[in-house]
Amino acid sequence: MSVEFLLTSLVVVLLPGTGVLYTLAVGLGQGFRASVAAAFGCTLGILPAAVASIVGLAAVLHASAVAFQILKYLGVAYLFYMAWTILRDGGALSVSEERSRHLAFTLVRNGLLLNVLNPKLSLFFLAFLPQFISPDASNPTPQLITLAFVFMVMTFVVFIGYGGCASLARDYVISRPTVLLWLRRSFAGAFGVLGLRLALADR
After folding, report:
1. What is the pLDDT along the chain (203 residues), one digit of tens a residue?
2. Model pTM?
3. Residues 6+ apart with CB under 8 A from 78
4. What are phi and psi of 56, to 5 degrees?
5. How many CB atoms lie within 10 A of CB 8?
6. What is the 3-state secondary structure (H, E, C) of 66-101?
């Protein structure tokens, strides 16, 4: 495993996306333990995309416009749903003085769906992982599995870091209603923008 793969993966994981936003919002709203569940769900959501790229199913999404569009619009709808969930009072990502104890299953499920319903994730792995396979490898599958596993571990660790930072800022945020309101609007707006970007994406 090359240093280039580790550095590139770290940069990709650190970039703010739906998983980062979700983990930050849960960390602010429900604390560190809840953010760990959110991070686990987001990481678990990478698994189908990684498996799809390894067995070649991602190529089907690339070749079939219909399959890509169906999955894409399911992802768009879910991103808009997450935006609405953040905005509404008492929603799953609501930030309040009382620590809302949503079931870990719900937090994991939401994070998982955010990545599962993103067809571009499968295409990303299809383009990303093969770049770091040894040219002389007779059977690249074990290497692909190892790379995908390392990428998932890095994602989980980084997302826990994001969630931990958000939970540390929780007391500051909930004591300032104006900051709280703008954070909710910002998170909801960010999910809405990501939904629009996905809706307008071709491949």
Report:
1. 678 788 878 877 887 677 888 888 888 878 888 889 999 999 998 888 888 777 775 565 566 667 667 766 776 776 677 677 767 655 544 554 444 455 788 888 888 888 887 766 776 776 677 667 676 666 677 887 888 899 899 999 999 998 898 888 877 766 666 766 666 677 677 767 767 776 776 65
2. 0.69
3. 113, 114, 117
4. 95, 0
5. 15
6. HHHHHHHHHHHHHHHHHHHHHHCCCCCCCCCCCCCC
